Amino acid sequence: MEKAKRILASVFAVCCFSMSATSQTRSNENYVMEKMTILVREDLDRKLLTVTRQHKQDMEMLTQRNETLNKSLDSIKNVCGQLQETQTKDRTTISDKIRKTDNAVASNQSTVERRTVWGRVIFITILLFLFAVFLYLTKRIKKGDSSIDEVRRAQKALQSAQAKMQEDSIKLDSQMLTLVQQQIANVPTTTNNNETDHSLALKVADEIVRIELNLSRMDASVKGYKQLSKAVERIKNNFMANGYEIIDMLGKPYNEGMKVVANFVPDDTLNEGEQIITGVTKPQINYNGRMIQSAQITVSQNI
Asked: pLDDT band at 101, cuts 50/70/90?
């Protein structure tokens, strides 16, 4: 019994000591936590103060830059306003010049069209005359009533009519080139949108190719042939000086890689497999090395 009391006393002493130690430990832990909390708060306050100062400096710098940009923007607005006024004045001036030029071009084009119509009428009349002579000779030959002298006289008449037709054609083409040169000198090279106006250049190029095709079918001894050839050469040189290039295709071999619109006709006089460009309806036009009009051609072939 006495021994049991001793054991209970020992257990009670150990429990009291344990409770005392636990209380002391908890007190120390609370103290440490409070100290750590204070240190963390102080560190956060220092960092927050540093970040706040940095942000304040950044804001001041951005404010200065914004003021500088606003000044630059005001200067740019003033320059834009001046440019807009200048462009308005230039548009008015250019519009007046274009209006005057359009009137001059319209007058010249009307003259060219009238002369072109007359030229075509004369050309058709001569063709009809030649056709009538040909029919007459054919009938006479079939009937056996014509003599060699009559045939020769008819041939001379045909040759004379053909020479006359070629001379008249050369005269009309020369007059047309004169009007074309006047138009080129008067027509502006830009539109209202400051874009290059190629319309007249393309029309002139079509006429040049047509004239060259006619010259290729004439004899060089025809009156006015050399003068017309030189006039065509001058206009082509003028084209080159202004950045235009008329691609020469007449008489050249045709290949499938060409960017053209081709009309093929059979020709047994060519070598087998040969393809030659024998007609140019519209030429290929390049402006500053860039194609602005593709060619329309006639290709004779023996395939």
From this structure: low
Rounded Cα distance, 252 and 242, in Å: 26
Confidence of residue 14 (pLDDT cuts 50, 70, 90): very low
Arithmetic mean of pLDDT, 179-197: 63
Q: What's the order of all strands across the beta sheet hosting 285-287?
A: 244-246, 285-287, 290-293
Angle at 164 between CA 161 and CA 167, to 5 degrees: 155
Return the pLDDT at 193: 62
98/92 Cα distance (integer angstroms): 10
Task: Fill in the DSSP letter of residue 258.
Answer: -
Half-sphere exposure for 100 (CA within 13 Å, toward CB) = 6
What number of other Cβ atoms are within 10 A of residue 35's Cβ? 10
Q: Give the Cα separation of 84 and 185 in Å (integer).
A: 30
CA distance 133 to 161: 11
The pLDDT assigned to 17 comes to 46
Residue 295 parent element (H or E): strand 295-301
Q: How far apart are CA 303 and CA 273, in angstroms?
A: 5
Instruction: Quote the DSSP letter at residue 189.
Output: S
pTM of the model: 0.47
For residues 107 and 182, what is the distance between their CA atoms, to the nearest angstrom?
A: 11
Query: Tell me, what DSSP letter sits at residue 120?
Result: H
The secondary structure of 197-210 as a DSSP string is --HHHHHHHHHHHH
8 Å CB contact between 278 and 266 = no
pLDDT range class, residue 276, cuts 50, 70, 90: very high
- Strand residue runs (E) in 180-273: 244-246, 260-266
Residue whose structure tokens are 């006495």? 2
Angle, alpha carbons 278-283-289 (nearest 5°): 130
